[in-house]
Amino acid sequence: MTKINVPKSVKIIIKILEDNGYEAFAVGGCVRDAIIGREPNDWDITTSAMPGDVKRLFHKTIDTGIAHGTVTVMIERVGYEVTTYRIDGEYEDGRHPKSVEFTGNLIEDLKRRDFTINAMAYNDRQGIVDEFDGVGDLERGLIRCVGNPIDRFNEDALRILRAVRFAAALNFDIEEETKNAIVTLAENLNKISKERIQAELEKLLISKHPEKLKIAYETGITNVIFKEIDRLEKMDELDNTIGKLCEMPPNHYYRWATVLIHTDREECRNILRGFKFDNKTVNNVSALVTAMKREIPSNRGEIRRDIYEIGEEIYPMYLEFRRIYDDENSDRIREIQAEREDIYDKGDCVSLRGLAVNGRDLMELGASRGAEVGAGLEMLLYKVLEDNELNDKETLINIFKKSVS
Fold it and tell me: Which one of 267, 321, 377, 389 has the lowest number of neighbouring Cβ atoms within 10 Å?
């Protein structure tokens, strides 16, 4: 019997349930990860005990999803979801069952799950319960639906995208019948909220194998949820973009900027907003994409100008992104990275706050408050960005006087 390493707290929960006459197993992704030697993010438990019984047996519980049979059991301040064996009723929205029916049969519970590799249960007494050959699919490197893939995807359309995401996370292929069902039902992803689509795409893009994005294109998924990918294929840029994705570290901003590199600033921002990303992501990714259209600076003055125009916070991120993305100019980018450090070490002026004059100085010289002061300060800043020797109050006042005379 295969043994897997189960945390002490999980063993305690299973033992208490068993000692009181119930079945209990670790189930799902934690079993999958433990079998392949990965550290599970969390441990879920399935049991024949009803939710009320679980609440009765444990001192500290939280009703996290009691209508669907889930109670969170707290052990040493860590929560473990304990869910009663269940059979899902009819799905009404391509995502959630209308009702659930509790059952005393573990196999009936495992039958409702998405993929064979996620439909295994384990306890130390019985070992791995693997009715659907999940272990075999782990060995073969396959993502396969439990039972009929058309049924599984009709129950929950998000599983269509999750299949590709698991392929990327594990470097697996998608089994042929499962893949054909994805092609047939990809349109059903229109039923899924943008937030859920974003969460799955994010996991796919920052995975160790983002090249699996090609599967999403080949099966028609991207044509439904991310048409920019199909546009890349029409431009003969998809393979190149996927190659660049694989070169990038698993950085949220870098990976999204890579797939959106051929958009303009507004397109980029609209796509990210469509996926309901936070403002920081929208701003940073669109800044990276926009900055990549710039010429590479040839001297220190142009570097200072770029720091100002791109933004002091984003500029080092942009340089590193460009160094990785732009193979032909990576040596020059390294030189610019070193010069940027020197610019800060030597205290060069790279922003309005470093300018030797301020708005009050210009108003004392007759400039009107507001637009005229702003334009005057920016004009002086660009002079200083080009030649930092000019950043002296008297010198700048003289330059300003000449500009308005």
Answer: 389
Separation of alpha carbons 232 and 240, rounded Å: 9
Asked if 266 and 231 touch (Cβ cutoff 8 Å), the reply is no
Question: For 140-195, how does the pLDDT look when each residue is reduced to its tens digit (9 = 90+)?
Answer: 999 999 999 999 999 999 999 999 999 999 999 999 999 999 999 999 999 999 99
**C-alpha dihedral (22, 28, 31, 37), degrees to nearest 10:** -170
SS3 11: helix
Cβ-Cβ contacts under 8 Å for 315 (sequence gap 6 or more)? 306, 307, 340
Cβ distance 405 to 365 under 8 Å? no
DSSP state of 122: E
3-state secondary structure of 391: coil
Token readout for 22 is 């119930």
174 within 8 A of 215, measured Cβ to Cβ: yes
- 176 Cβ neighbours under 8 A, 6+ residues apart: none
- As beta bridge partners, residue 24 has 47
Q: Could you give the residue ranges of the DSSP H alpha helices within 126-212?
A: 134-140, 149-155, 158-170, 176-185, 194-205
CB proximity list for 22: less than 8 A, separation 6 or greater? 47, 48, 49, 53
CA distance 83 to 66: 8
| Cβ–Cβ under 8 Å, residues 93 and 191 | yes
Task: Dihedral sign for Cα 352, 358, 363, 365, please.
Answer: negative
Parse the chain into domains and list their residue ranges: 1-134, 350-404
Q: Are strands 142-143 and 173-174 parallel, antiparallel or unpaired?
A: parallel
pTM of the prediction? 0.90
Extract long-range pairs of 73-77: CB within 8 Å, 24+ residues apart. 73/13, 73/45, 75/9, 75/12, 75/13, 76/9
Residue 187, CB half-sphere, CA atoms under 13 Å: how many?
1
